[in-house]
Every structure is written in structure tokens, then in C-alpha cells.
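Example record for the data management plan.
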Amino acid sequence: MSDNVEKYIKRETKESISNKISEKFVDAGLEKIRACINCGTCTGGCPSGRRTAYRTRVAIRKALTGDESVLRDIDIWLCSTCYYCYERCPRNIPVTDMIIKLRNIAVEEGFILDAHFGLADKIFYETGHGVPANGEGNKKWRDLRESYDLPPLPPTVHSYPEAVEECKTLMKEVGFRDLMDNAKELKEERAKEQEKEEEKADE
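Corresponding structural encoding:
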């Protein structure tokens, strides 16, 4: 092949290939991923894929081959977990569960989106709610509840604020606090590495 032709051919290179992802799938009882024939039925029927760049087949293929770049890919967070891919899969592979597992691995490795980290670390851990209903900014939700003859606040930690500490204790016991602390540490390390690389590039 001539040099002129080669310079126009772009070859895909994998940054890192390992068995870490597939091993975690097996540990979670999701070894059925190996039955995937990469037919694209999951991608073809994906409601999220019609409106975003999300391609289910690509994420599953990367996971199957051990391509760890899938953990940094924002696409795994675009899945709406509707389970339509699972319903249509000819091999009956629990595709949605695979995507959820990929998200779990991504968080363990510190590849959690800033918005999700803020929600989990600051809001959920501190209030016991993913979507707090108290506060001035959420008055419309309290009004809506009252319009249905419901109390303005649900019978959760909003109604029993003393239970927030119990929720925090539970999150510590199940490892949620450690998971968030580890993710924060890994995110900060990567941010520092990126800053160093940018400084070198500017020199």
C-alpha cells in the first residue's frame, strides 16, 4: 500500500484492553454478555438513541472486548433504563442491567459525571433525598401535593428530619460514603494530571 493511501486511512486504536470489565460482569452474574452477537437490535430500538449519540451496541461491544474507554464515555449515562433493548434482544441478554453495571464500574473507577456526583454526594447523602421537596425552590411540588389532598411533604426524612442521621449511618454501612470519597479522590487526581498535561502543552 502506498504512503499516499495510508495517510488517508484512519485506524482505530484502543487505549486500554483488559479483562477487568468482563470479570466484574461475571462476578455480578451477568456472564450472559458473552452471548452477544452484536446484531444491533438493541441500538435499533433504543428510544434514547433516536435523540442522542448513544449507541447501545457500541457500549456493549466495548465492555465485551474489555475496552476501558467505555467507562469514560458519557453515552452510558444516556440510557433511560426502559428495558426495551432487553425485550427485543434475540439472545435474551439483560442489556439494561449491563449498562447499569457499567455505570457502577465507572463510579468505582471515579468516572462519575459531575452532576451525578453532586447529586449523590451533596444532596442525597446530606438530605436522604434524591429530589428534595423542602426549600423555597420546591414550593410548586408541595403545592402540587396539596392539590391532591396530600400533606405538603412526603412521610420521609422531610417529615422526620431526625432520620437523616440514620440514613447517613446506613449509607456508611453499605459503603456508599466510601464509594463517593473514592470517586472524589480519583476525580481530583485526574484533574491534576490533566492540568499538568495542559501546562506542558502550553510550554
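Summary line stored alongside the record: The mean pLDDT is 85.
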